[in-house]
Amino acid sequence: MSLTKTKIIKGYEHVAYLPLQYSEEEMIKRSTAYLNWLDKRRSVREFSDQPVPKEVIENIILSASTAPSGAHKQPWTFCAISNPELKSQVREAAEIEEKLGYEVRMSERWKQDLAHLGTDMHKPFIETAPWIIVAFKRVYEIDEDGAKHNNYYVNESVGIASGMMISAIHNAGLVTLTHTPSPMNFLAKLLNRPANERAFILFPIGYAAEDVYVPKLQRKPLEEVSCFYE
Ligand code: IYR
Fold first, then answer.
1. What's the CA-to-centroid distance between 52 and ligand 1, angstroms?
2. Which residue owns the Cα nearest ligand 1 atom 8?
């Protein structure tokens, strides 16, 4: 017998939601602690090749997959790659696109904006990191009768899921960066993805390399990122 209370609402089964609630004091403590913990996350471009258990990657994917999505379609597929040959192929193809990006497609202004981050066309992290996850968005689904149904708010949904994945990676004590080779269609080809899937972001995942440095960045203060209407 299930202990969860259920109810039929507008013809559909619902389950009782038991909110996790805290006192105001506890909320302030928790939200401050969460902010301080999240603020320690940084995009890291140098990885250790130390292996990471598959179970951790599975949990990270399932964490991302708890994200809200348009009509609860969960319009995403997370492809996790640890196979060294496949990682090499992905790196090679990504670097071909990135070379074109840095040499031809990107404006001087864009390259200037990136200069302080030290990014370039070389993507060794795709091979060094023990895992890469490519988040694919599922633009539509095909039903049993072969009919095509578009998903809803696909970019928003996969964007939110990707953010939650970054947080899950940080929680595991691992690091990542959001790599967006452009165009990304080589990934669907290399990974043999169906026609309804488009690569969204590539995440290398692993331990940070030893003695790694990241750019000294300032995050915008509250006044610059918010507007309160009280
Ligand atoms: N996609 C390129 C360039 C790049 C663009 C932005 I905006 C960044 O914040 C970082 C990199 C690359 O991955 O190198």
1. 25
2. 114
